[in-house]
Amino acid sequence: MNAYAIETKNLSIFYGQFEAVKDVNLQIETGKITAIIGPSGCGKSTLLRAFNRMNDFVPTSRVNGEILLHGQNLYSREIDPVEVRRRIGMVFQRPNPFPKSIYENISWGARINGFKGNMDELVEQSLRSAALWDEVKDKLKQSAYALSGGQQQRLCIARTIAIQPEIILMDEPASALDPIATLKIEELMQELKKNYTILIVTHNMQQAARVSDFTAMMMLSGEGERSGTVIEFDQTTKIFTNPRDSRTEGYVTGRFG
Amino acid sequence: MEALLFIVGVLTVFITISIVLTLGDQALLFFNDPAVTLAEFFGTTQWQPQAGQFGIWALVSATLTTSVVALLVAVPLGLAAALYLSEYASPRVRDILKPLLEVLAGIPTVVYGYFALLFVTPILRTLLGADRVGVYNMLSAGLVMGIMILPLISSMSEDALSAVPRSLREAAYAMGATRLEASVQVVLPAALSGVGAAVILGVSRAVGETMIVAIASGAGPNFSFNPLEAAETMTGHIARISGGDLPYGTLDYSSLFAIALMLFLVTLVLNLISQWFVAKFREQYE
Ligand SMILES: Nc1ncnc2c1ncn2[C@@H]1O[C@H](COP(=O)(O)OP(=O)(O)O)[C@@H](O)[C@H]1O
Ligand SMILES: [Mg+2]
Hints:
The complex is a heterodimer of chains A (257) and B (286). With 257 residues, chain A is α/β, with parallel strands linked by helices. Chain A has helices at residues 44-51, 81-87, 102-112, 119-129, 133-136, 149-162, 179-192, 205-211, 236-241, 246-252; strands spanning 4-15, 18-24, 27-29, 33-37, 61-69, 72-73, 88-91, 167-171, 197-201, 214-220, 228-235. In chain A, the strands form two sheets. Chain A has a six-stranded mixed sheet with strand order 7-8-9-4-10-11, with helices on both faces. In chain A, strands 1, 2, 3, 5 and 6 form a five-stranded antiparallel sheet that branches. In chain A, helix 3 crosses helix 4 (119-129), helix 3 (102-112) runs parallel beside helix 6 and helix 6 (149-162) runs parallel beside helix 7. The relative contact order of chain A is 0.19. Helix content of chain B is 75%, strand content 1%. In chain B, strands 1-2 form a two-stranded antiparallel ribbon. Chain B is globular. Chain B starts with a helix and ends in a 5-residue tail after the last helix. Classes of the chains: A alpha/beta (257), B mainly alpha (286). The complex binds adenosine-5'-diphosphate (ADP) and magnesium ion. Adenosine-5'-diphosphate binds at residues 15, 20, 40-46, 58 of chain A.
């Protein structure tokens, strides 16, 4: 089996004529946490959403190059995007639980994906994995909207775990949360990494430094350019202590960005 | 501005109250007449004012039958159209289809009435047998009434569906949902209060619709829930009888107000039921 969970080759992503992401070559390692950092508008979300074909819902969007999942191109004709999204889960910037009960938030995804096992068990297991079980075990029938923002986000992680994806994409999952809730999500990521490959977009440098094994630094590709690209990709410690690119250094030390 | 809005609000309430009072006043005359009793009105199934028989169920049955037929057409088709427009159609297709659908709502009901009588009824008689389906029948009127209500339900439901935040759809798709699963199991339940309001309005339109049933469903009270039979609805009866010249103060005259009051009550009860339904099953999102 291929050592990389995801590999991109000369990947460019367009919105109409606009090339939002240009020429990205990444190798995402299995079982690691990879952070994508960079100033806003440089295409982090666009890149992330290409991995689970979420950009398909933007009618003007288009992809050039390849995204390989275990060596298989995600954008080849015979690939069903629904199947891709089942294998690559996603957690969004703002918690977006379904307006259903806590229990149903977990069970729904499992059910539509044909889960036939013991649902109660799955719900408990998923909530435990998301470090939420103790807080909600007595109110599973209550609306997910009764939970705090941090709890809602962990619920969103739990429902993603419940469909047992191979990879979890997180787009600034803690940006709408307070520091304590953020810390909980970060601890959770360390746990999840044992079973999942995680890609996280964050604008928080300390967070990237704390949680990730690898870091991809994205920037607009040059003066007067509107296209973003990955200017440096390496082990997180390297990126933060000894970057090759002076722009990366400037960004991670907070001099600009 | 606020004062103006307040006046308009008060005016609406005032108008509603005056309608009820007018109806109630005349209806009281009717019920005070020694020839009628409440028990007869609510408990019997013959409506023949000439013979002194005033059993409202003869008219209510037709109203319910035509309305149910209409809703069986309008709710599923209207919802399907709304889901298609809001979840499947490209913006271009939507821009073409939506106005087309709304044209349906602009057709005068008298046209619908003759469409039912002269077009739909002959088809039904050919399909189901002329011996089983009369020239006047509740099925034809109900079906066409359904077509008339459809754009109302679809356009209101579509508004409700479109108001569901995109983040919910994304959540569903990110879980590996198909378009159908996301639309029916996530977006639709989240929009249920709006969709419910559309259905409530549809019910009220169906119960209150007059022209189509007056033309196509039959001119004579008939206690029956069989849509293949002819029967007169409450509205149809009021329209036909008030078309003749009834002397003020007669029992026939005041009976119309009793029917109207009943119509008001039926609509009210149906409204309450639908509101209860929506409150019970809706999924609220922030
Ligand atoms: N749906 C879209 N249609 C057109 N342009 C878009 C769309 N989404 C994002 N963009 C553009 O693509 C660029 C990258 O956006 P995004 O990926 O959201 O950046 P980031 O997540 O790094 O802030 C921006 O210039 C943005 O305006
Ligand atoms: Mg973003």
